[in-house]
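Thread: assembly with ligand

MN 10:42: here's the input set. Chains plus the small molecule as SMILES. Want everything predicted jointly, not piecewise.
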Amino acid sequence: MMGPELERLVMLLAKLPGFGPRSARRAALSLLQKREVLMRPLADALLAAAEAIRPCSVCGNLDTTDPCGLCADARRDRATICVVETVGDLWALERAHAHKGLYHVLGGTLSALAGQRPEDLSVEPLLRRAASGEVREVILATSATVDGQTTAHYLAGRLRDTGVAVTRLAHGVPVGGELGYLDDGTLTAALASRRPA
Amino acid sequence: MPPEPHIEAMTDLPPLALTRLTLSRFRSYPALDLATDAPVVVLAGENGAGKTNLLEAISLLVPGRGLRGARIGELGHRAAGESAGGLWAVAGRFVTPLGPLTLGTGVEDAAATRRTFRLDGAPPRAQADIAARAAAVWLTPQMDRLFQDGASARRRFLDRLVWALEPSHAREVAAYDTAMAERNRLLADGRADPAWLDALEDQMAQHGVAVAAARRMLLARLNAALAGGIAGAFPAAVATLDCSVDASLAEVPALAAEDRFRAALAAGRGLDASSGGARLGPHRADLVLTHAPKGLAAALCSTGEQKALLVGIVLAHAALITASRGAAPLLLLDEVAAHLDNARREALFAALPGLGAQVFLTGTEAEIFAPLSPAALLLTVRPGEAVARGAGARFGAAQRRVSGV
Ligand SMILES: [Zn+2]
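BT 11:07: finished. Tokens for the full assembly:
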């Protein structure tokens, strides 16, 4: 009953986070019913984003320029780098206006069980940035999960030789709490009361 | 029609009580709606009638895997010829010190891998929100094997006791297990990065000491309660842990115990790699129970003495929960009379009213529970149904407790 074009659309939509086959069918139907006001503009926006947006070669943020807008912003404190797991975490901290310095996106957490090793994360680039002489403090803002805390401990060990101050988010972030789920106030408080790692 | 008897006000219900239980496609019950508004509810029926299924349904109204430790796929009702159960639901209406409460649980989606909860109709923010409002402890015939089974069964038993008082304990155990599984994998890979192992052992030390300390605290309180005679005529057990981290906590503060455990893990990497996992830690702990009056290891006691020790522990545990929350947990006693002699059975029945807990008891012979009759609601369980005994039954006087009885 579904043509191959529609089937492919549903199949692709179903790969989006939070989507399953049922919600994908609903989204496809909604797009088709709003062909001119939603579907075509969305297709154009997807194409434009796919063409223009790239990971920043310095921090890993996603932007149309490289270095990204944050790295290029002269008003930001270049002596402080906040290390986050994902671009989503970076966005959460930016939404909360919790951090005035620069960022570094790791691209995940260490997990032997999931096959994520140090070489799969942006660890070496972080060590190079930390050793550049411009940086005084690295804030480890990984989540309060076991993997997040293991990664923070690992990075603190690797950063020790660079001589920069290494801090971690304050307690009060519950075990298993992931950064993206925290409200702005909690994020700001956790960042303000960070402690040496 | 005779006038509807005046149903006694619920003032003599315990502060936390289940007043109504509704099942939908659960185990042997296609559907059931049962009033349970009595301090003592006796479920009598033949073996296989579904008595334990009712206790299990109640046990699932609080987080955890219930009194059978079942997987959710096993819980759905199976009609004749169906190979697997599907969607199911259990709901309970409670009175609590904070007012009325409705709890529901079940599988709402055939693809679900976990059951979901409803607290007053809405999804709870966290399972701890449920654990904070309602609690249940139980004693089942399966637990009679506790003394013969391996250490892992005793550890799970202990962790459930801890968790009922300290809802964060389950998260700490899970975090410790995750860190340990990560370290085991890293050691098995043979490409061990020392900084990575350091980080995982730090997590194991933090969460492992938290787990051991919570167990230690529970056992201290339990032993004190038992030594103080809280279990009445039941023999006091002395419970200790056979665990390296617990031994450290007996000697040094928690932070120093973390340092010790971390150092032991770092020193043991080679041996742990060849033995396939961490040889030391709270995941290897064993609960050691001793029959205090006899000074005899519980494993060497008779079946009847072991049952009596377990009853004592469950009663003491219920008293600890009452002390810390202000309301006693529901007490689910499955076939508890089986291994108890007459004197012990009478002692148990004598102790129950003083606990301030709502008690659910199962048995094949209703008559055994006659001493409880003034407070008891007797329900006869037959396959797929449970009905209150009508007036004239020899147990109690009427279907409901009636004013003046
Ligand atoms: Zn950047």
